[in-house]
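Students often ask why we bother predicting the structure of a whole assembly rather than each chain alone. The short answer is interfaces. A chain on its own may look different once its partners are present, and contacts between molecules only exist in the joint model. In this exercise we take four input lines together and write out one structure for the complete complex. Read the inputs first and try to guess which parts will touch.
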Amino acid sequence: MTPALETRNLCKHFGALTVAEQINFKLDAGARHALIGPNGAGKTTFVNMLMGGLAPSSGAILLGGVEVTRQSQRQRVKHGLGRTFQINSLFRSLTVVDNVSLAVAERHGVAWGMFRPAGRYRSVVDESMQLLDTLGLLEDAKLSLAALPYGKQRLVEIAIALGMRPKVLLLDEPAAGIPSLESHRILEVLDALPKEIAILIIEHDMDLVFRFARKITVLAQGAVLMEGSPAEVSSDARVRQVYLGERRE
Amino acid sequence: MQGFASSLVSVAFHGIAYGMILYVISVGLSVTMGLMGFVNLAHGVFAMTGGYVMLSAMSRYDVPFPLALCLAFVLVAAASVVLERLLYARLYSAGDLEQVLLTIGLIFMAVAAARLAYGTLQQPVNLPPYLKGQFALFGRDFPAYRVFLVAFSSVLVAVLWFGVERTRWGAKVRAAVDNRAMAQAIGINTSLLFTVTFALGSGLAALGGALGADIIAIQPIYPFENLITFLIVVAVGGMGSLRGPFVAALLIGISDTACKYWLPQFGAFFIYAATIAILLWRPAGLFGKASQ
Amino acid sequence: MLTRIIACVASMIFAASAGVAVAQTVKIGLISTYSGPTAAQGDQLDKGVKLFMKLNGSKLPPGVKVELVVRDDAGANPDNAKRIAQELIVRDKVQFLTGLVWTPNAASIAPLAAEAKVPFISMNAAGVGIPYTSDYFARVSFTLWQSSYPLGQWAGKKYKRAYTMVSDFAPGHEAEEAFIKGFKESGGVIVDSVRVPLAATDFSAYMQRVKDAKPDVLFGFNPAGKQATAQMKGFADLDLGKAGVKYIGPGDITTDEELQGMGDVALGVMTVHHYSAAADRPANKAFVAAYKKEYGANLNPGFMSVGAYDAMQLIFDAINAQKGKMDPQATMQYIKSYKNANSPRGPIAIDPETRDIMQNEYLREVRKVGGQLANVEIEVVGKMVKDPWKQLNPKK
Amino acid sequence: MTGPAHTGSYLSDPRVRPMEWLPWVLALVCYFAAPTYLPLGSYILIMILFALSLDLILGYAGIITLGHAAYFGFGAYVAAILAVRVTADPLIGIAVAGISAGLLGWLTGLVILRMRGLTLLMLTLAITSICYEIANKATALTGGADGLGGFNMKPILGLFKFDLFNKTGYLYCLLFLFVAWWLVRRIIYSPFGASLTGIRENVARMHALGSPVYQRLVAVYTISAALAGVAGGLLTHTTEFVGLKVLSFDLSGDLLVMLILGGVGRIYGAFVGPVVYLLAQDSLAKQFPEYWYFGIGLMLVLVVMFARGGILGIVDRLLLRIRRGNT
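Now the answer. The structure tokens for the assembled complex follow.
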């Protein structure tokens, strides 16, 4: 079966500095996969290359078996790639439902419509409302986004990505900035995500990672250190060393 | 052929003189834009004020030329601190639009104030006798004042570059231009740094305005009339860079002079066309940091 | 908007209740440049007008008053000027239009004045063709052909090779054309011509070009003001005088109000023009004395102030001739035969055929008089000169 | 909930509210009540249309430009050259002016809209400056610094003659403004308008949504340029003259000031701003022509420091306070 997302020998250099070295990575269909690694391991660079924000120096990226290495972010989205942002990247002056509707309208291909009022596109509005309902945000739908508490804004971040109906979803630290007491809410939402979406989560909250992921890839100094089940990773000596080594500094 | 070579020398000379003035005026703009991310369209106001301070000091109070130059620097730098604390600092985190508007407003006010104080006539420039006349070089005559201009600006540029490259303050400025959050994190008082840098940049503009009063006429409409030129220097050179605007200013000075000399019927067309071409080729300017 | 309407209605009611107006008020619409880069020129007009009003504002028939409605056109800005003129005509119902520093502005207003039958008197704008576009246009200032054509004829006899450098707009083109025609007629050769943008402030590159071409004489023209100073400075910076180039032009290049700021380099510059503050006619001496008393001893009136002053004189004479009951056609009839023997610039008259100014043209040289630079009149090169261009190009 | 500001939203009610008819009623009242103010009135209507075109790209799409005069001036010159050389029919003139300004907007937009921030600002400035230089130097076509005049527009549809009092001109401008307003309003309430707001708010996220950001910007820029060109054509037709000022940086600056004064990104800011600015200019510039500038500058500074929504923003806040006071 073709992996939902695959990279082959992906490299990135900034001058003499290598930030990604020969990364071979596979994300299976419907996967619950986590990417971890200490600060500066190259996680953000890797995600940016996947999304098309950063061009790799060499290597290939495949989405559902189709090579997209040279394609723009927009084309990748069309192939089913979606993401959330580590730092909230929302439309602050819009309402919650508009935040989601923007994504849904793009997917429906109606966002070029110039003459019919937006509100008449019932399918867009209804779908957005439904989505908010599944995330428990229905009663906040008509509020201005800036009026929401931070935790709920993190959920809107996910809602927007779901509005794109991605086949592959990159979650960039979904629990960042959320007190660990509240992170269970995020986990509930993640657990309820449609099974057919392949999910790659980048996260620092190890609790969350080990409860959510079925497979973990560890990145260190721009290269894949190891890959395996949560149990394998937690017992691996090299992983311990990387993390503990860093902590000691 | 000899005629061509000698006109080439003249064009280069006048172009460099003009370019040097542009640089001294604009370098402060480049650094403040790079450092604080502030779109300060009112930079020309400082240059104009410098010109007025020097000229009125000389004509009304018989202050000698060198002292009048210093006066222009000091007074304008001091005034800019007040402005920075009072107005600019409140908009550092605001959007580009707010900054554009504030500074356009300041230009309007400065233009009106200058008219009130000095009338609309261009201010006459009375140079000291030792800077008048011609200066023979390579068998050609050059206006002595412009020779002085080039020499003085070169020294100024050298001092400035040394200051930024070799002093503690310079290191802080460079660090803050590179990464403001990081600079703050390692304990640099960025607010103080901004104020000092802003004052220095404004003072330099004043110095440039005063020195260049002979080339860029001091009159109330100055900040508007020259705004595009100053902005071109910064945008083409690259915000936050010291060397970029230098190259850009010389390029503009020389090509402007060359166009006037050889192709006067085209006016400023080439300058604008070149600006567009360079910005499309390198959006961050010749020496600017590539945007993320 | 609302307050406007209220004010409007209120004034209507007021006008109705006041019944028959006691005093006859003649409204004069004055359009000039008070803001923008060329406000200095507008200031010159303004000073002339204000001085006239102060000295002669009350010399009117009994019961007649004059009201000046002043508007700013903010520089060479013809569409704006036209709109302002339109407003002065329909809203303020002015009986005269005057002012106008700029030819483009005057050219855009002239046809409107004819359509609305409002006499329109140019205080400065010198574009040579304007009278042909409007029967209600008259001019008390000058045309560049009046000065530059005789200057060319005179210079052609003294010098062989000339270079021309003019501002790139209609009056500049006219000065260039007139000078070249006169110069060639007297046997001179034109080496090269350059047109400088209206906004130029640094002339050194252009002057370098002149220097390298080595002419005997440089003919310059610019719209006076700061450009005159900048051009002179460019001439001085490159020491063209020492390189054997004589600087000549119409009086705009050594305009009296700027002359002191130009410095000694202006010494020896020869110009032909209709007015000099240094002229020793009694009428001029009185005018200059009054001007200095009003605006300070260091300020000389320039030709623009004189143009404004004379235009006001003409308007007042026309009002007096009709005892304040203004009829546009009668006014134009009066203007066509207008003569004023006592202008500060000498005798002036309006040419009945073209409604353009007739005046003496003087050859002048910049000299030091009592420690001050002055345009000293040497000889009259043309007596009561009609505009030469219109002689050459009569209206079909 | 949605505020009184008109934003592209999937929730807002697109129907025209009663208050939105007020400007049109006022405009017609002025026509009858202040017939001698119609030359100024026409100019105000033209500037409103121009400001509306700027609001579309600045207020909604977030493109900061100091060069919008390029399209206004281009439209004005095209209309004038057409009247001099081809036909003096006004409706054809407006159509050609709008289309050619739109084309220029499209071409320049393709080139510059990949840039952002200062670079974009500089490019818009440089483009206006180039247009200005060309108009200044192509004397044979444009009349250079002397401007282009000497043409008389034909009556509209052969029926309505342009008159000295500008009665025809006023209604002519009002009609085009109305059509433009209707169009802009439609666009803003559409999904396209919503996506423009999205781009202004967070361009990175729009990219991540797979939105064709660049194409959207080019599209709205083209529409805006065409509207500006129509405004320029109207100016040419009502004054039967065009000068270099229509292409100048000053005009772009003045326009920006008017829009900011009224309020950005709310349609009616483009109505309030020019009215207040030009009426104030009309009365103040008459009494204190020399120092008019200072007041404008001070006002800008005050608006930026204390009243970011412009006049309409202040009105909003007052209404809010009154409502709160009542409950």
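Check your guess against this: Chain C is about 45% helix and 25% strand.
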